[in-house]
Design brief:
40% of the residues lie in helices and 19% in strands. The chain is an alpha/beta fold. Helix 4 packs antiparallel against helix 5. It starts with a strand and ends with a strand.
Length: 365
């Protein structure tokens, strides 16, 4: 089950530097000029989860396989992107394919790195990009409404639902509000997702600060946090420069480096965790002598669909799920101990998988 987060922002805010560190590669060229990233760079990263190693230690697993997230480095948007300025249309299409947006904002002063707008104001930068995405959405909505006009006469319920949702989005966008500001009924969620509106995607603001402010942030990142709170969005503070240095260090040296900088964990780990939370994701585990593995699902996923993440046949032939909660597995020092303590459960098709469940699926092959 793949989850994609697009990294967006104005040119020269540190997107490619962050992406390079994030994916531990130099695949994205970080350069001091706009549009140095012409094609979106894609990288997969492990989602940090200390629970996995503990489970593997108890089970004597030979291999540890964490769950993963995909990050897409999308070239810098500029004012007018919705009308094709810069490389606008191409990049808007790339954003459309992502599940969420990590919006990198420049919260540092550096005379050697130009700013495309000639000033440092992360809140204004966020508004510039949001405006371009809203304009692109508005244009898309108006095109679709025009295309639906004739079909409406047929009385098809799905067409009517599409029209209703598009008109709700149009009204919000016309008022200068992103599509994600609308409350969508549960019955409409599938249709709503199919509209693929750019501003319907959840946003995580990434404040790129100078090295000295990596632990606590600065006045600019504080402004961003305030803006995010008003929107019901999330924000994280990161120094892309520090993350770039960390990416080059062996693990033991990286830990020492973090301690010297007064940081408890890498900013990238915070970013990945925040992205995971933003998308409403959680993890369950399969554990055995061969491997201990983490699997990503959305919150509220039922057991058969969780099984389907491993293989479609598991979902089709689902019989039951044997499960132990993570804390019970650790307390019992494994499945046998959890059974003795009465913590081993057998669940059916209506079981809603919980974060940290250790599962074993039985199915008709």
């Amino acid at each position: 089950m793949g989850f994609r987060m697009g990294i967006v922002g104005l040119p020269n805010v540190g997107k490619s530097t962050l992406f390079n560190a994030l994916t531990r590669t130099a695949a994205a060229q970080a350069a001091n000029f706009p549009f140095c990233t012409i094609e979106p760079n894609v990288g997969e990263v492990s989602v940090p989860d200390a629970r996995l190693e503990k489970l593997a230690g108890i089970a004597g697993s030979k291999q540890i396989i964490p769950t993963r997230m995909t990050f897409v480095d999308i070239a810098g948007l500029v004012r007018g992107a919705s009308k094709g300025e810069g490389l606008g249309n191409q990049f808007l299409a790339n954003i459309r394919e992502c599940d969420a947006i990590a919006h990198v904002l420049r919260c540092f002063e550096d005379g050697d790195i130009t700013h495309v707008e000639g000033r440092i104001d992360p809140v204004a930068d966020a508004e510039t990009i949001e405006t371009e995405l809203m304009l692109a959405d508005l244009e898309s909505v108006e095109r679709r409404l025009a295309a639906l006009a004739k079909k409406l006469r047929g009385g098809d319920q799905e067409v009517q639902d599409q029209d209703r949702l598009l008109r709700a989005a149009q009204a919000a966008l016309a008022e200068g509000r992103p599509a994600r500001s609308l409350k969508i009924a549960e019955d409409d969620r599938r249709q709503w997702r199919m509209l693929q509106l750019l501003t319907a995607k959840p946003v995580l603001y990434v404040c790129n600060v100078e090295e000295a402010c990596a632990a606590e942030g600065n006045s600019q990142s504080d402004r961003v946090a305030e803006m995010a709170a008003k929107q019901g969005a999330a924000s994280v503070v990161i120094s892309a420069r520090i993350e770039e240095e960390l990416a080059q260090l062996p693990e033991d040296e990286a830990v020492m480096f973090l301690e010297e900088m007064g940081l408890h964990e890498a900013g990238l780990d915070r970013l990945i965790k925040a992205g995971y939370a933003l998308l409403g994701l959680q993890t369950y585990f399969t554990v055995g002598p061969k491997e201990a593995r983490a699997w990503t699902i959305t919150k509220g996923t039922l057991a058969p669909q969780a099984a389907g993440v491993i293989h479609g046949d598991f979902e089709k032939g689902f019989i039951r799920a044997e499960t132990v909660a993570y804390d019970d597995y650790i307390a019992g020092n494994g499945e046998a101990g959890a059974k003795e303590a009465g913590k081993f459960r057998v669940e059916g098709k209506t079981y809603e998988v919980k974060d940290g469940d250790v599962l074993h699926f039985l199915f008709n092959g």
